[in-house]
Design goal:
By secondary structure, the chain is α+β, with helices and mostly antiparallel strands. The protein is built from 13 helices and twelve strands.
Length: 333
């Protein structure tokens, strides 16, 4: 496994770099690297930024709001937070892969005497409090898995900038975001800086202190492609916020696989337009399912037929056809 040394703290660049490394044929098949962003909120691929983020506060504080290509929920990054990304061949089921890629990170944290463990569908927790959220994206036969590590982050800022839905807070059995997260630094047997932590963590994940021998460097042409992707996609309002077409039917529910929200414009009994948002995970672009539902009669039978015909688990992991029908048509179940 190789690594890259990325000292950028521009969230637009860093997310573009992840996508380029995932999709480029010039990138190694197995990579792991660590990185940090300046204060930013990174929203999940399927989320509505207006609903998930306190945009007035982020604008006032100069905090970037950027959409990533992986699913899951919104997270806050700052210089007390450490991000890790693995790139590898895509093999297996998503639920198993979350455990697979968090396992070395958990082992590394335990080597610092931090009692970390896997929890729920995608979290690492310490003493019942979340220290790491994880997400994945897939491209052909490749994938990346990335996650956060709250080392010494501003926990009050997390609570202030994220508009976490009440149903998610209730599902976690706590009263606020602030009460369900913590930093790993107080649990470490030795108090070290975030830079020292990153150095030791990377050495642990690579299994060597000889980082130079395992370093992959982007060619100048590749670097230019990453910066172009950052400019043309990640820095745009269209990508990060998108347009909000008219909807007259809104349905949402939280399942084991995450929250799913349908925003539909139903006209003359047909679904004229469809948007599906939430913090769920997916392998395929959700636009494919949205397109399949557009033009279909808004009835349990017609919608159910579409959900049966498509590879539903590739669009929305771990949420069944019947659960979605129950969300859209409560009286039908």
């Amino acid at each position: 496994m190789l690594t890259i040394i990325n000292n950028e703290n521009d969230p637009y660049y860093n997310l573009a770099l992840e996508e380029w490394l995932l999709k480029s044929g010039d990138a190694p098949d197995a990579l792991v690297w660590l990185w940090q962003n300046r204060p930013a909120v990174i929203v999940g691929r399927h989320q509505n930024a207006t609903e998930e983020v306190n945009l007035a506060l982020t604008e006032a504080r100069g905090i970037d709001v950027v959409r990533r290509i992986s699913g899951g929920g919104a997270v806050y990054h700052d210089f007390g937070n450490v991000n890790f990304t693995f790139i590898a061949p895509f093999r297996g089921q998503a639920e198993d892969l979350f455990r697979q890629f968090t396992a070395p990170v958990i082992a590394a944290l335990r080597s610092f005497s931090v009692p970390a463990e896997f929890s729920g569908r995608n979290d690492i927790v310490v003493c019942g409090k979340k220290v790491s959220g994880n997400a994945q994206a897939y491209y052909r036969d490749r994938m990346f898995h990335h996650g956060t590590i709250l080392f010494d982050s501003d926990l009050d800022a997390i609570d202030a900038v994220l508009n976490v839905a009440p149903d998610k807070i209730q599902a976690k059995g706590v009263k606020s975001v602030r009460s369900r997260v913590t930093n790993v630094r107080p649990f470490m047997r030795e108090d070290i800086t975030v830079s020292a932590f990153m150095e030791r963590l990377l050495a642990y994940l690579l299994g060597t202190d000889d980082i130079e021998a395992r370093t992959f460097r982007l060619a100048p042409e590749a670097e230019a492609e990453v910066r172009r992707l950052a400019a043309e996609k990640y820095r745009t309002w269209e990508w990060n916020h998108g347009h909000s077409p008219f909807y007259n039917v809104t349905k949402s529910a939280r399942f084991a696989g995450g929250k799913v929200a349908f925003y539909l414009h139903v006209q003359d009994g047909l679904i004229a337009s469809c948007r599906i948002r939430g913090d769920f995970f997916s392998k395929l672009d959700i636009e494919g399912l949205e397109a399949a539902l557009t033009g279909v009669a808004f009835t349990p039978e017609a919608v159910g037929g579409v959900l049966t015909a498509v590879p539903l688990d590739d669009y929305i992991f771990n949420v069944s056809r019947d659960e979605l029908i129950g969300c859209l048509f409560p009286s039908a179940v």
